[in-house]
Amino acid sequence: MRKVGIAASGLTKFTKEDISIESLMISSIKPIFDNTKNLTQKDIDVVLTSTNSNEKYLANIISELAGISPKTAHSVESLCNSGTNCIVSAFSYISSGLADVALVVGAEKSDSPGLVLDWDKSRGQYKHPIYWSSLFTSSHMRKYGTTMEDLAYVSTKNHKNALDNPYSCFDRSYSLEEVMSSKNLTDNIRLLDCSMPCNGSASILLASEEVIRNFTDEPIWLSGIGQKSISAGFTKNSELSSMQSTSSAASDAYLMSHTLPSDIDMAEVHDAFSICEIMALESLKLVKPGGGAVFVKELYETNNKKINPRGGLIGTGHPLGATGIAQTIETYQQLQGEAGKRQVEKAKTALVHNMSAAATSSTVLILKS
Amino acid sequence: MRKVGIAASGLTKFTKEDISIESLMISSIKPIFDNTKNLTQKDIDVVLTSTNSNEKYLANIISELAGISPKTAHSVESLCNSGTNCIVSAFSYISSGLADVALVVGAEKSDSPGLVLDWDKSRGQYKHPIYWSSLFTSSHMRKYGTTMEDLAYVSTKNHKNALDNPYSCFDRSYSLEEVMSSKNLTDNIRLLDCSMPCNGSASILLASEEVIRNFTDEPIWLSGIGQKSISAGFTKNSELSSMQSTSSAASDAYLMSHTLPSDIDMAEVHDAFSICEIMALESLKLVKPGGGAVFVKELYETNNKKINPRGGLIGTGHPLGATGIAQTIETYQQLQGEAGKRQVEKAKTALVHNMSAAATSSTVLILKS
Fold first, then answer.
1. Which residues in chain A have their CB less than 8 angstroms from residue B61's CB?
2. Is B72 in Cβ contact with A227 (below 8 Å)?
3. Domain A4-112+198-220 in CATH: superfamily?
């Protein structure tokens, strides 16, 4: 299998300001062209757009606006997991030899049609994501004794980390007490346990081993990939206190990259809600089952930025189609040693966890410097 | 590059009857499971859906409904060219080694939001596809002396071919006179020169060389792939009497498969409008520039089914996201010698041409038995 690496990246500031999807995308592509030596539009073989927007032909529109005439151009959609689906697809075009350079562009608006999965009629009026996250929370509490305070540590930590992320939608920290006294949305989900939709875009440039050094002296390699879709509605989950699709995707990613969970120096995990970070850490085998909450508390108390240094979805905002790409960009910057105040020391191996709809599907990527 | 072949296919009858996108998709998947020896849901690594529908998470929904828990599942959209984009993406997952078996499922409804490209404001009220096809027609007439009668031969031939296609939406032939006297939509586009949107689905199963013989004794190989996106709005075309994206995609596909245009035994070309078949034949180098009309007339008069034996988009109907897959299924059946009354004798090498929006992007596939 041909090696594929990341050569460059670009982000917009995540915002509540109303900006068109095309403008968002072009704004995150621009720094890639501005900052990448030798890169011209002619180098780009593939343009993939990641979004839940209903706009059609978007990859071709963005290509035209950016002056690119790629071979392949299309949009990829898989709800919140669109971004890493797009990255894996770009990987496969390059790895197969069909392409050498691919531009992956994700963006979403805060009123995205991907916020609620209309299809799942079985949930009746309870189709908003807070309801599955509430069931996840109840189940995890029952099995492991997780508390409302444990959940608050996730939000407090991630909001604090986001203070060092110039692209975050939010710029204030919250005390444990503030999180715990924020508005109750269900009997165990508070407003500050939720990630919030926002407008934002993230772009990444992937290239083959053969050409990547034309564009960067420090490529970061996509060394492991795992994906799994269990279902679309979460009623097929075998249980609700762990993430089956995440475990399966992680196993495949660790195997492909010859990496153990103990090798992971830092990770971006999909904290759509506080409980998701705790469950993801366990399902990724970064901690033992039931060990997520204690680990998060320890990270917070020791100011250890190993998990979600950019602030996660809760601290930064969640523009659906951009999220998986923004997560991957954080690991890219960390492995390059370019993460500024967020830098995790000596990070050589990183993990990205991106998922959709009650962890019915997950992607896990492992990156190495 | 690892070889990838087609192992099975399924179609629904194209129809004006209102059927949900999920039901359409499941109906075209069913014959694949019914007719493929040894195939179980567990064999499928990748499920990609091709549609312009606004429904989200469709690849995961269809996977759940079909009892499949794939690794990778997402939707692909690139207007009328979505189907072959999906096939090429599936090819790359398999060819790269990330997957062994991929199910590609395309479907569309006749009221698809992909019928008109809202983005192209430069065309004002003239954004319906009949207007670009009318400009193509004027331009080709000016350059090559193409006549209204020449156009009528395309529609008459394709409607006649469709009579032998049990999955066609339409089941009657039209004389040259009937086509020529059908309603004028612009000064050079008549109603019967247009393909019509309809409801329909087409699915195809791709597999790696290593595993394909578990499922079929007669795989058909995807030996050449070419894709090109020039723009999203057709005002970037260098001229309007040929298809620049098609020429570029065809060159790459011929090169990859070590095939010459003269080796092509039969082809499915994207006759969204009559003029498109004539222009595509020329841009694919199956005839010389300006030679398309005479060639089509000759095919009709000699009852030669070499081009669009299933009836093309005009004869069969055009369910956008399914079209490229249905075209590919026709070449698959032809190369297997299983095309019944439509069979082109001794077909060993076939070509698929699928495009979007005024040929602003094209895919060309070359298949071999």
1. 119, 232
2. yes
3. Thiolase/Chalcone synthase (3.40.47.10)
